[in-house]
Amino acid sequence: MKILIINPNSDLEMTLAIQETAGSFVEKNIQVTCIQTPGAPKFIETYEDQIKAAPGMIKIVRENEKEYDGFIIACHCDPNLDVIKEITVKPVVGIGEASMKLASMLGHSFSVISMTEQSIPNKEALIRKYHLQDVLASVRAPTEQHKNLKEEEKYLETAKLAIIEDKAEVIVLGCAGMTGVDKRLEKELGVPVLDGVVSALIILIGLIKHNLSISKIRRYRSSKS
Amino acid sequence: MKILIINPNSDLEMTLAIQETAGSFVEKNIQVTCIQTPGAPKFIETYEDQIKAAPGMIKIVRENEKEYDGFIIACHCDPNLDVIKEITVKPVVGIGEASMKLASMLGHSFSVISMTEQSIPNKEALIRKYHLQDVLASVRAPTEQHKNLKEEEKYLETAKLAIIEDKAEVIVLGCAGMTGVDKRLEKELGVPVLDGVVSALIILIGLIKHNLSISKIRRYRSSKS
Amino acid sequence: MKILIINPNSDLEMTLAIQETAGSFVEKNIQVTCIQTPGAPKFIETYEDQIKAAPGMIKIVRENEKEYDGFIIACHCDPNLDVIKEITVKPVVGIGEASMKLASMLGHSFSVISMTEQSIPNKEALIRKYHLQDVLASVRAPTEQHKNLKEEEKYLETAKLAIIEDKAEVIVLGCAGMTGVDKRLEKELGVPVLDGVVSALIILIGLIKHNLSISKIRRYRSSKS
Amino acid sequence: MKILIINPNSDLEMTLAIQETAGSFVEKNIQVTCIQTPGAPKFIETYEDQIKAAPGMIKIVRENEKEYDGFIIACHCDPNLDVIKEITVKPVVGIGEASMKLASMLGHSFSVISMTEQSIPNKEALIRKYHLQDVLASVRAPTEQHKNLKEEEKYLETAKLAIIEDKAEVIVLGCAGMTGVDKRLEKELGVPVLDGVVSALIILIGLIKHNLSISKIRRYRSSKS
Amino acid sequence: MKILIINPNSDLEMTLAIQETAGSFVEKNIQVTCIQTPGAPKFIETYEDQIKAAPGMIKIVRENEKEYDGFIIACHCDPNLDVIKEITVKPVVGIGEASMKLASMLGHSFSVISMTEQSIPNKEALIRKYHLQDVLASVRAPTEQHKNLKEEEKYLETAKLAIIEDKAEVIVLGCAGMTGVDKRLEKELGVPVLDGVVSALIILIGLIKHNLSISKIRRYRSSKS
Amino acid sequence: MKILIINPNSDLEMTLAIQETAGSFVEKNIQVTCIQTPGAPKFIETYEDQIKAAPGMIKIVRENEKEYDGFIIACHCDPNLDVIKEITVKPVVGIGEASMKLASMLGHSFSVISMTEQSIPNKEALIRKYHLQDVLASVRAPTEQHKNLKEEEKYLETAKLAIIEDKAEVIVLGCAGMTGVDKRLEKELGVPVLDGVVSALIILIGLIKHNLSISKIRRYRSSKS
């Protein structure tokens, strides 16, 4: 089984972090590769960033469709996920969709830890798109009070607030760049913490094994089919 | 007042039809121009078509931001509307959003007449995005039984079914390419029929006159601001 | 084009304020008149106030239907809007409905600034009636802490809380009596602020120009038709 | 215990029918009186009909508040229920609200049998107001195919369609004028059939016995309190 | 009329308290008996507690179906209510469902006072099951700050917070063990306070009097029917 | 890795069918065992059937918790899933929840093929519990017209109707007893068909590999913890 993880931005460091998480998770008989997107911004924050990433992402999928058994979009705002689901017959999983739907199976409600305050409305819109608003405890970003903390401590403190004040029962790491910290946070918080990359691999490996893919009958039918 | 209507596809005929509708609607003191999008497909149907239209649309807005007072996206699936709202400080209106929200003010429920069966799920997703699912009577496309009719008659017969079977009280023309037939259909159907281009002009002219635009505080803040 | 704005209460001062806002907004070729409602209370706060305003409002519409091209109900709780939509074939717009639906086109979510705490549940019920609850950030009224401020400052401070604590991206002025302060608040707040009277004029002028009105097929069919 | 049932229309025959249903239902220690509304139309169908009934209804409540322990509004569209709840400290129950909320306790979903097609959107709006849309199987009115049947047979045939086609598990009689036929329909249909007057009496008698009434803290606080 | 109230736990003290509330409420011609459930835990808190109570509850209903005219399940989480509705042809009412649906008729929104923080998600899930989430102000339990208060004072202080901070207009006592304190709380709080046992009696007495019961057509059809 | 699949009924044939599906799906390093539930009915159809299965299911989990790494509940109505999630610290997956949430990732909407008409309301209630009602195209059971077909053909014809009339894009097999036919149906239908057992294995294997389990902080905390 060969899986290609597309990091929609062009940041090498994040690509390597995702690669490491993925490599640690999969069995030896699965070959998993993570590549960054040529022409994409260093970080996907705005709608324009998403648009800029699209041509490179489409190109990657088209060039690798035959060789790989499935694709993961490894940015938690699932940029261009609809178009990627549309253009290939191979299964495609977004880390945002996978981690939040998995979270809904592990507890009464979940909170998403986001990088910045600005990204909260966008994340809320994504959550509604996936019909998950009624299982959502909150979307939270580190605030002023956390500004002197290290990155990982910021997420930890933000997650604590989500658990106590918003009654979250599961924590979703809302950025691919947070990959690798889930198990440490889980230990401190005492609730399940979901890493997007791992979540997407869980779903995608299963789909590939059972030869399942995106329905091509209407919404995701490409113009060629 | 100067308004630029962006036809997200590259079809000249549709551009001219939109221009005619717009020209007939606006007062003389308003200058309205419709242009097609360079590099875009002839018709926007798939998610990939939307992505292909994006760079041209962004370019048009960037090059014309100073000269024009506001922009209309003239394709009823509102392709790339979020990114256009984000990149300019001038007001932007999509014909899908404008026509469906206006429809909700004119009756108990509305139906959207769509070109093809395939576009129905996509339209439903758009309607949910705008939180309009509870005012929707149905999305309907002409079916096999209408295949020998002329285009305009197809919409008319489809709208009749929406009114009788789905109890629609208002009809929304679900494609910019249907522009110009609203008043004839309205006469035959006996209920309000909304043309997307006209609907968007109603909203945009008002916004420009009162100096209103998209909120830049969070969701639509561009990376430069 | 002749527009009649019905102030559902009998307060002359508020009527004049609405008249001034409307007069400043419309082009010279539009004649707009605002009248208060005979027999109505000075201020519409309770359900009984709404009922008391009804006969006068109906009388105004019946007596002026031929002369005017459309009507605006200028109280933000849209009292008797359904019945007015029902009894006339001319287009009717409520300032509550118009301003809140317009707000939904300008940002991720909006907050309504209400006069008093007591009116909040009523406003929430109205928002649900318009299917807008999922775009609502909050309904807020000035609280004890604002009691020594001037009216306009009260709204400003309340709006600031809505933007910061409820993450509102657009502010809606929830009372016709607040008319005229929108642009000053907008400047202070940095987000769009919607005046109900202006919002309703935007919609109504468009409807009249394109000869659109309320659907008479079922919900708003009068007993005579 | 003394209960006053207000028939919001001025039809004597319907008043007597309601009186009979109520008289048969209550124990001897309860005195129940049904009166029609002076100045109201013969039948409440439009929004204007509702408005016309309001002054008479308010007058009845004001004049009888001391003498009676509670009030029922006996028209299934619950006309002016909000204002009546507001103006009196005695408990008030609408037959629409009572019968539909009771129906939700007796099965998976319910259908409302309505008099006319035109009243369906209005009834749907009422159902949404009561947050019951997710328990609703359908609102149905007799159609052309039933036109030669007697009234009672019309409701029976319409209810059969609701049970088979819409999978309704409970039937709600959607008009006070249908009172008295519930038990015969129940026998034929094999599912619970709810009469509005009986449903409201069930709730109101209980409220009076335990000295419960409408909350006066905010939404239903009258201007005098 | 003979009513059997099933206390799903095995606590004699709570059984007696329920019996007292019920005895005080009903007329003399109604015979009401409350029994605890053999084999059930002392207190129903977890899902396993609910399961443990089921066999005893089913046995009680089967053995008493002929003798009694209807059943009440007297635990506010309505344990095993679906199965009890299914196995008997006599009407069955849960105190959770009855009290919360009654609450929705008495004000704009209600809050449930729960015994413990842990039970909040479970209660929220129940509220969604009954489609009441949009009328809910909050579910609240006493917190650390109330730990030194007597039980009754804890509920009082928690209810005060619900009214002020969550804008609740009606209070629902979220545990059968709170029975008997409703009128004292009501006096202090100034809003209606609903006791579950009384609420269920109101509904059940009405159902029995009019010979109404649970629909047996589909969802609650037992395997024998 | 050792997985225990609990067939909540006592049917040996179904147990063997599930065992076969599971055995074919998993890698060699995973040991998967399916056992039926002692004391449970042959087929789970009613709420009482679910209750009867509970003690045996709880016993199985308690006796096998140490030996196995995770559990699957292999009946599509997910009987007693909440209590099983509560009593063990090992991950638990229901085939209903897993297959329907997976379906929501593969297309715009899904339909569930149910065994009997009677089970439809129950399934709808389950779908609402999982917040999936907005992604649901329909729940369908074979009807009279299919009565002479073989079982597998019944599902096929029912699924065809779901795809054409309800516009389903993904089919979910709504009974563990349908296991094994997914790939044949998929071939005929041209859309993804989800087998519950496979879907649950996909999720559970992933959870076990990454050491994830049900949140024990509130809703699923057992009384012992």
Q: What would you note in describing this structure?
A:
The structure is a homohexamer of 225-residue chains. In chain A, 43% of the residues lie in helices and 15% in strands. Chain A has 225 residues and is of the alpha/beta class. The first copy, chain A, has two domains: 2-94 and 198-209, Rossmann fold (3-Layer(aba) Sandwich), CATH 3.40.50.12500; 97-195, Rossmann fold. In chain A, the strands form two sheets. A four-stranded parallel β-sheet of chain A has the order 2-1-3-4, with helices on both faces. A four-stranded parallel β-sheet of chain A has the order 6-5-7-8, with helices on both faces. In chain A, strand 5, helix 5 and strand 6 (136-140) form a beta-alpha-beta unit. In chain A, helix 4 (95-103) packs across helix 8 (196-209). The two termini of chain A are 25 Å apart. The relative contact order of chain A is 0.16. The mean pLDDT of chain A is 96. At the D-E interface, helix 4 and helix 8 of D face helix 4 and helix 8 of E.
